Amino acid sequence: MELREAELLTFNREITHKEKFWRCLPMNQKNNLIIGLIIAGVVFMSANVDADPRDFVEGLPNIGIILQEITEVDSSLFVTAFWSMLETIQMAFIGTVVGVAIALPLSLLAARNLNNKFVYIPIRALLAAIRTFPSILWAILFVIIVGLGPFAGVLAIIMYTVGFIAKLQYEAIEAVDIDPMDAVSAIGVSKLQLIRFVVLPESASHLLSQILYIFDYNIRQTSILGLVGAGGIGFYIINYIKFFEYGKAAVFMLVVLATVLIIDWVSVRIRDKYIVKSQRGMQIKA
């Protein structure tokens, strides 16, 4: 009975939030003008970048050719695909763990509710600089530094994870309710104690959700780093596609798909157990 009441309260709360959202967006003349300008901007920019829908329609028959070649799967490559996918998972796991370990202290320094502007502004500038380069450019840089192979890919994933996850983390830390922080600070605790007993517990569910997301993303991202010789299953996919051997490339893509689905299922189970329950205070039916 209590579970049912909790579900109803959560549902009513969500409905109330939706009503407030739509009340804040009345369909008046001003908002209609904004929507019209956005649509006009999309049309103008599409023409500016030569995005012609007719080209897409004319190219649709080529999909049939690719699909026909993809069905010619070479099953002898599944063993190679499995081991290369295992290498990709290892790269993503190491890059995620090390990247998050570096990003967490940086995010604490970048949070405005924990530091003054002389601390958080330089840290945010550093994180913005790191985020400027996508992982593929970091991979090119590290291939030059350490040579071809998975190590360059791991370093690229670490750098991308630091820049990306640190931003999400310091935003989650800044969203922590100020009342518990003020109450604990009033009894004379140090900043480290404040972080240990208030900030991290209050933001833990958000941080775990972000870690799961970045690991899932890194699996996909690592799959294309082989384009620049940074190891992983992407090396095989890119090379087979380069020589129009779509049937062989399909074997590796199927392994990537299966791996992503498994990781997504595991991620959902972890979210249901540790994140959704802590945020809503109820169990999720399996």
UniProtKB/TrEMBL annotation:
| Compartment(s) of residence | Cell membrane
What's a single GO MF annotation on this record?
ABC-type phosphonate transporter activity
InterPro entries membership: MetI-like, MetI-like_sf, PhnE/PtxC
Q: Which residues cross the membrane?
A: 32-49, 92-114, 135-160, 222-243, 249-268
> Which keywords are on file for this protein?
Cell membrane, Membrane, Transmembrane, Transmembrane helix, Transport
Q: Which domain of life does the protein's organism represent?
A: Archaea
Question: SUPFAM superfamilies recorded for this chain?
Answer: MetI-like (SSF161098)
Instruction: Offer a single GO CC term for the protein.
Output: plasma membrane
Q: What's its membrane topology?
A: Multi-pass membrane protein
Where in this chain does the record put each ABC transmembrane type-1 domain?
85-267
Similarity-based family: Belongs to the binding-protein-dependent transport system permease family.
- Specify the protein name: Putative binding-protein-dependent transport system inner membrane component
Q: What organism does the UniProt record list as the source?
A: uncultured marine crenarchaeote HF4000_APKG3J11
